[in-house]
Design brief:
The protein is of the alpha/beta class. It is built from eleven helices and eight strands. The protein has a single domain, classed as Ureohydrolase domain (Arginase, Chain A, 3-Layer(aba) Sandwich).
């Protein structure tokens, strides 16, 4: 398959509960992402950081903090993703986040480019189904709620492209999503969302990938969202969120992402929740992540 990988930096932590993620795109570059992609034989074009926001407290809006900045960042990402995908059917986009709310922009941009037949494989230890009515006010933990325009969603986020919902439940798959509050568990049931736990993925990655590929066969475009807090943090402490719940091993995650990105419809890979200050050895941690991304994108083109 011809085409190239377009790298877009979404250097924002506007929707997060703390700063750090806004530094991730530059850290990926400093640790050799672009060079390794090129060395793998992948044509790569770096479009720089298209948005730059650092988290700042917003006590005046306890139900949903910094909503205007989150919307601005997502819309900026959407415009760039749309433009790049419109360049041709074989163009791929790697979006380096940034907090998870940028996925709203990725989906809005993808739909603007190819139409409504866009699906999302959302790899994240969290379900991100809290809301302004039942949560802690952090937009980062409400991403799926706003993608689906679920009850209690804020219309500024869920209506990002003017045509909510951004996704229907049958165009979304939650992958390795173990953590859910009682509120989120009820929403999972009520909305009928398909979810794979990390235990399922670890136990039989091949079957999970096959099932996801079969689902993606009905899509014009597959977007893959990778939240690095899905990794087992006792072995790989690089995520913004620090969890006690065991996640995926790096090997399993690589098999999962590579398997998804080889699907013909897979055109966008988004990486979120990376905090460069977390790992004791940043060079080693970024080296491992860059190896995963390189393998996934090289196989995709």
């Amino acid at each position: 398959m011809n085409g190239c990988v377009h790298v877009v930096g979404a250097a924002t932590s506007a929707g997060a509960h703390g700063s750090g993620q806004e530094a991730a795109p530059n850290a990926f570059r400093q640790h050799g992402l672009l060079e390794q992609l090129a060395d793998s034989g992948t044509e790569v074009v770096d479009h720089g950081d298209v948005v730059r926001f650092r988290m700042r407290p917003d006590p005046e809006h306890p139900r949903l903090g910094s909503a205007d900045r989150v919307v601005h960042a997502a819309r900026t990402v959407a415009l760039h993703v749309q433009h790049l995908l419109e360049g041709g059917p074989h163009e791929r986009v790697l979006v380096l986040g940034g907090d998870c709310t940028i996925q709203l922009g990725v989906i809005a941009g993808a739909k603007a480019a190819v139409g409504d037949s866009v699906g999302l494989a959302y790899i994240d230890l969290d379900c991100d189904l809290t809301s302004p009515a039942n949560g802690n006010g952090i937009a980062d933990w409400m991403g799926v709620t706003h993608l689906l325009d679920a009850p209690d969603a804020d219309p500024r986020l869920s209506g990002l492209d003017g045509r909510p919902p951004l996704l229907a439940t049958d165009t979304l798959r939650l992958v390795a999503a173990d953590l859910a509050t009682a509120y989120e568990q009820q929403r999972l049931h009520d909305l009928g969302i398909t979810r794979y736990t990390s235990r399922q993925v670890e136990a039989d990655t091949v079957t999970v990938v096959e099932e996801l590929a079969s689902w993606a066969d009905g899509l014009d475009l597959l977007s893959v969202h990778l939240d690095v807090d899905v990794l087992d943090q006792t072995e790989f402490p690089i995520a913004q969120e620090q969890r006690d719940t065991p996640g995926l091993t790096l090997t399993t995650l690589q098999h999962l992402v590579c398997g998804l990105m080889t699907h013909p419809a897979a055109r966008v890979l988004t990486v979120c929740e990376v905090n460069p200050t977390r790992p004791p050895d940043p060079a080693a941690a970024f080296g491992s992540l860059i190896g995963l991304l390189t393998a996934s994108l090289a196989s995709a083109v």
